[in-house]
Amino acid sequence: MAAVSPFQAPAPSRVAATVWGAGLAAYIVATTGRTSLGVAGLQAVERFDISASVLSLFVVVQLGVYAAAQVPVGIVLDRVGSRKVIFTGALILAAGQLMLGLVDTLPLALVARVLVGVGDATAFVSVLRLVPAWFPSQRVPLLTQMTGIIGQTGQIISAVPFLALLLGAGWTTAFASLAALGVFVALLVLAVVRDHPARPSRPARRSESVQPVGTGAEVPAAPVAAEPTRVPISAVVREPGTWLGFFTHFVCLFPTNTFLLLWGVPFLTAGQGVSTAGASSLLTLAALAGVVTGPVTGYLQGRHPLRRSWLVLGAVVATIVVWASVLVPTTPRPVWQLALLVVVLTVSATASNIGFDFARSFVPAARLGTATGLVNVGGFVASLVSIFLVGSVLDVVRPDGAYTLADFRLAMSSQVLLWAVGLAGLLVCRRATRRRMAEGGVVVPPVREVLERLRRPRRRHG
């Protein structure tokens, strides 16, 4: 079996699902907090008397704090466990939402968003740490994908009930309600979540290696101690599998975040001539596509763990090709081509979660939180840089803000710089990871050998 968290024992599936569900509820509320200001943009401009460009500062603050908090949160997570981190984070997020609902000046609103960012930063990595502690290793890749997908339903809460409350009852009531929801999930986590199942009666030995289905080779699992051991952070930093996860998240997440968090709607409306309702429909399609692509990706990475990097490379290449097909022509693209773009961007986002699976496979369980946080930094740092690059190009070519398709074609093309960096890092780290695996007796066979083995039975039967 694969590596598991310390003290893992077989857990009843109903209990495991309940623990995961409570943590997932906290992540959904965190996602709601992250996206709530996005649907309240017009009201925020009026309340704080700011321009649209200043409003974008809220996005930068949110992502910046989220990314900066990942490694510190991961270190704390390894020390105190998921339950305490999620509980504390939910209360911090609730305090930020309440503060945002009460203040009416920009500096205090930014402080409130910092609190929301810190609270948000605790949820995802903490829930991911619960999954291998409570579920069999073969289910972890799929549940990792499902955690990300289900967590994004917080966007629906922001877009529907929260927006309705905002328009009907006003700013303060709407954000105070989110604060109350945060307190509720904090209490739920305190009551339900436990960091791991009951401790076994005898110490666990070193974990067995993973036997991937259909690969004919074994992947060494991270060692599991009978008692919590002090694993230095340097062990995470020196592990090439950590950086393989980092660059996986880096290269797969930034194009999706750049599109969904800020520049997608302007690109579709001002650049491609799509109506606001049409742009909203395309973004909805992206959310629905994740319901399909996430489980499929999770199934494939669980069934073929030696070929996970090929899933990543395939998603990156597909995204680059489809973006090129949209940006090279000088005329607006048909709706079907734009729909294909948002679906491929969703595939790229789901592939980014494979980075967390790399961390789980190669990093000792005692430092899984730190490794997960470091992997999560990759995608959000790249997203910040990408959002900044696109905005900088637009400012240079069209300072008055009257953007055209030609402006967006040039600005969106700046993403090629991040693809180049991300792919280079991914390939270098993959080579280093495979070299480390070979030292442990696991050699990844070339693809041509795998294809040859698949053809042999056909030849014999022919």
UniProtKB/TrEMBL annotation:
Pfam families: MFS_1 (PF07690)
Record's keyword annotation contains Transmembrane helix: yes
PROSITE patterns: MFS
Superkingdom: Bacteria
Domain called Major facilitator superfamily (MFS) profile: residue spans: 18-437
Transmembrane segments: 50-73, 85-103, 109-131, 173-193, 243-265, 277-298, 310-329, 335-356, 368-390, 410-429
InterPro entries: MFS, MFS_dom, MFS_trans_sf
Gene3D superfamilies tied to this protein: MFS general substrate transporter like domains (1.20.1250.20)
This protein's record includes keyword Transmembrane helix: yes
Membrane topology: Multi-pass membrane protein
Principal location listed in the UniProt entry: membrane
Keywords tagged on the record: Membrane, Transmembrane, Transmembrane helix
Subcellular location: Cell membrane
Protein name in UniProt: MFS transporter
